[in-house]
Amino acid sequence: MPEQSNDYRVVVFGAGGVGKSSLVIRFITGSFRDSYIPTIEDTYRQVISCNKNICTLQITDTTGSHQFPAMQRLSITKGHAFILVYSVCSKQSLEELRPIWSLIKELKPNISEIPVMLVGNKCDESAELREVSTSEGSTEASLMGVSFMETSAKTNHNVTELFQELLNMEKNRSVSLQLDGKKNKKSKPKKNKDVSNGTITQEGGEGSSGNGKEKCHVM
Ligand SMILES: Nc1nc2c(ncn2[C@@H]2O[C@H](COP(=O)(O)OP(=O)(O)O)[C@@H](O)[C@H]2O)c(=O)[nH]1
Ligand SMILES: [Mg+2]
């Protein structure tokens, strides 16, 4: 059987210093740090639920360099979705995404079915520091045939949206983050099961996506 495991694996690529770790940490923990700690490769996990199944959103934060090609190939092979990050303050960081994008296309023959987001991070930075305009970023994404978004891990702009959009692009399974659409904390006593702070919500409920595919929620 081809593995359609309980894991949904997202891999984050980009040059060193563009804010990959900051984006992932912001998404997972809600915090931001100003210091720069070079990453080799870290994987963060977030429990989500797919209908009645518990599954894991695995986010792999990679190193910016090409020091570990074997690791890079492995992450690509295992990845279900990709985030390609550059800094809007560095044109070079956008250019540096080219080789990894070529490698992704080489290793994923069905690339058109795979969610990929080109992300211009650090959009909070002042206009003078910008080297890549929003329209340049967006044009680049169209040329690549992928989606585009500008983010700031620092101000938390578009961070959740980034992951949400990416999962919304998945066509083979219906994975989506529903962080705000549902008040699944403790606020609303639910008719059905509602495993308190873990909050497994099972019914398709309000935003039911239509085509009868599974719906996944963050827990
Ligand atoms: N202004 C600004 N700085 C950021 C942002 N994201 C990350 N940084 C800073 O950029 C540096 C590199 O971030 P890091 O996440 O370690 O980059 P990585 O090498 O791509 O993982 C750190 O000093 C961060 O504080 C952002 O959205 N805006
Ligand atoms: Mg890092």
UniProtKB/TrEMBL annotation:
SMART domains: RAB, RAS, RHO
InterPro entries: P-loop_NTPase, Small_GTP-bd, Small_GTPase, Small_GTPase_Ras-type
Protein's membrane topology: Lipid-anchor
Superkingdom classification of source: Eukaryota
Molecular function GO labels: GTP binding; GTPase activity
Keywords per UniProt: Cell membrane, GTP-binding, Lipoprotein, Membrane, Methylation, Nucleotide-binding, Prenylation
A Pfam family recorded for this sequence: Ras
GO terms under biological process: signal transduction
Stored PANTHER family: RAS, DI-RAS, AND RHEB FAMILY MEMBERS OF SMALL GTPASE SUPERFAMILY (PTHR24070)
Name by which UniProt lists this protein: Putative ras-related gtpase
